[in-house]
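Researcher: We plan to redesign the surface later, but first we want a full-length starting point. Tokens attached.
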């Protein structure tokens, strides 16, 4: 078995799963039949790269930052986990969440952020690019990739607000010199903010399923609006270690909080002081010809400048995106929530009528997408509809939600009718890979943020009314700890310990499947399956291993076992059936 510290794990759909999960998901481990086409494609890209005026302009582009005043931060180290500069702070709480508070004009925000989080940001950058190198080990292919990125991102800067560019420029000054060969710091920071969208577009995947819901009136304990979300984004355990809870007080606009990672100024989950919340869920997307506005900048703009749902819709409508995404927007002022559904060529808003709840998984629900073939295919083939039905089931079981009950929904690991479907199954609300989970109470301006592992650790409560006031500055405290939600007892169970071991065992069997000469011991597969016995994938992987070893009868038994379990998607089930047909052909 490999050393645990050196092993990465991603549950794969064949070999193509990466995520909302792997922040950058272009898969360079091509099948043989694809290689000539891929190199021809990238050859054309390089020619375009050399000849394109748009590429040359984007390479030279630097935002106009001279109009902003700037004080270069001189960071004071208070202890090994607390740093400050004027009224800007970075600290790590006892749940190991990093908390950042910054204020100023766009350029100053970027500099303050970069100066305080420099070590963390450079660590995240290293994790990210090492992941890319894992996907693309060949130096030649890496060069092709850099050429592709220059060409594909050539118009991104034209679609990003100037103030966001100025902030990103300031932040990028604290990036590592180590990766300047990929692109200069500012342009590299732009690439990273579009990486999720680019990977989403290139793979035509939503990749992993995020789940979010909003309830109010008769569905909550006090009648107030309550929102919960899982952000099922996985780039490895190392990337998820340094979660960052940001509290931003911009010179213009509305103060807001956001949950993401060091180096990120876009928003994937957040709430502003007016009680507007945003969360994003990927949808089925087609491959666009060029990058435009990264979705996290659209949601950032909503948080910074919207006070109502209508204002949020107006902001989203004027931005050109390049992937399909659902944005669940909650509003304290409206005491309501809607889903804004955006794609490169369509726009819709899903509002519920005569209901006080809205669910968001990974398919569109508005009238604008009623006849969208990609969306229809997504509903039939993916696990999105299954999780939607599970939310309905959970809401029937859990009346009058409060934050604690919302946390239990976000942590639910079972299938429909409480069937055991295996830990890590994408049909579960809790897929045991979430980067974070968040619960919002917009009218009270309270937010709960999960801590490691996944969304199982303690949910830490923050009060935005206090944080964006003199009271927080005097106390120096961010969290409202007396309102924290306790960790999930599952963390201390044998099943959780088995799941963590299963991740490494899964990586090992995948290596054996991919290797030409790696042979597993006789007791490996029974042990591997015992670690997660209800999960279809353990039998599918075992079948693939035996198939490669030409032990067709053993492979047949494993694939037949897989078909008795809750298989994640229709294409996954079809893959199992294809193997069985091939085995029968070989045996006959």
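Model: Full-length starting sequence:
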């Amino acid at each position: 078995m490999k050393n645990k510290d050196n092993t990465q794990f991603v549950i794969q759909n064949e070999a193509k799963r990466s995520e909302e999960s792997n922040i950058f998901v272009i898969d360079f481990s091509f099948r043989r039949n694809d290689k000539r086409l891929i190199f021809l494609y990238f050859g054309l890209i390089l020619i375009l790269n050399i000849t394109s005026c748009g590429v040359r302009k984007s390479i030279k582009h630097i935002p106009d930052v001279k109009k902003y005043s700037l004080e270069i931060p001189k960071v004071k180290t208070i202890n090994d986990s607390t740093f400050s500069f004027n009224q800007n702070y970075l600290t790590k709480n006892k749940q190991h969440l990093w908390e950042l508070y910054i204020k100023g004009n766009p350029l100053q925000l970027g500099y303050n952020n970069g100066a305080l989080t420099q070590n963390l940001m450079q660590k995240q950058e290293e994790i990210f690019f090492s992941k890319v190198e894992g996907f693309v080990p060949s130096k030649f292919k890496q060069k092709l990739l850099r050429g592709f990125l220059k060409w594909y991102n050539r118009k991104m800067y034209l679609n990003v607000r100037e103030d966001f560019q100025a902030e990103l420029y300031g932040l990028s000054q604290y990036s590592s010199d180590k990766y300047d060969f990929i692109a200069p710091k500012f342009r590299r920071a732009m690439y990273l903010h579009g990486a999720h969208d680019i990977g989403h577009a290139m793979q035509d995947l939503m990749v992993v399923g995020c789940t979010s819901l909003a309830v109010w009136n008769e569905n909550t304990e006090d009648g107030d609006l309550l929102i919960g979300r899982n952000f099922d984004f996985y780039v490895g355990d190392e990337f998820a270690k340094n979660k960052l809870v940001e509290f931003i007080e911009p010179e213009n606009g509305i103060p807001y909080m956001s949950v993401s990672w060091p180096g990120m100024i876009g928003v994937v989950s957040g709430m502003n002081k007016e009680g507007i919340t945003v969360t994003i869920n990927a949808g089925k997307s087609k491959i666009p010809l060029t990058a435009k506005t990264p979705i996290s900048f659209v949601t950032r703009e909503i948080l910074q400048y919207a006070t109502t749902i209508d204002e949020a819709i107006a902001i989203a409508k004027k931005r050109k995106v390049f992937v399909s995404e659902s944005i669940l927007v909650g509003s304290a002022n409206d005491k309501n929530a809607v889903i804004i559904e955006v794609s490169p060529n369509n726009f819709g808003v899903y509002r519920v009528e005569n209901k006080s709840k809205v669910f968001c998984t990974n398919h569109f629900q508005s009238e604008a997408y009623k006849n969208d073939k990609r969306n229809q295919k997504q509903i039939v083939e993916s696990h999105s509809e299954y999780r939607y039905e599970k939310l309905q089931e959970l809401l029937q079981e859990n009346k009058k939600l409060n934050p604690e009950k919302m946390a239990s929904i976000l942590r639910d690991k079972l299938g429909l009718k409480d069937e055991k479907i295996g830990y890590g199954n994408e049909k579960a609300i809790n897929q045991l890979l979430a980067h974070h989970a968040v619960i919002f109470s917009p009218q009270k301006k309270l937010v709960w943020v999960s801590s490691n592992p996944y969304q199982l650790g303690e949910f830490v409560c923050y009060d935005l009314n206090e944080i964006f006031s003199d009271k927080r500055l005097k106390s120096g405290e961010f969290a409202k700890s007396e309102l924290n939600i306790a960790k999930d007892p599952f963390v201390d169970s044998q099943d959780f310990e088995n799941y963590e071991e299963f991740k490494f065992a899964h990586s090992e069997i995948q290596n054996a499947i991919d290797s030409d000469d790696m042979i597993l011991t006789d007791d490996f597969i029974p042990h591997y399956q015992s670690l997660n016995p209800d999960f279809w994938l353990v039998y599918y992987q075992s079948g693939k291993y035996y198939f490669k070893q030409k032990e067709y009868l053993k492979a047949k038994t494993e694939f037949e076992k897989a078909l008795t379990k809750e298989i994640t998607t229709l294409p996954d089930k079809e893959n199992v059936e294809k193997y069985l047909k091939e085995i029968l052909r070989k045996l006959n």
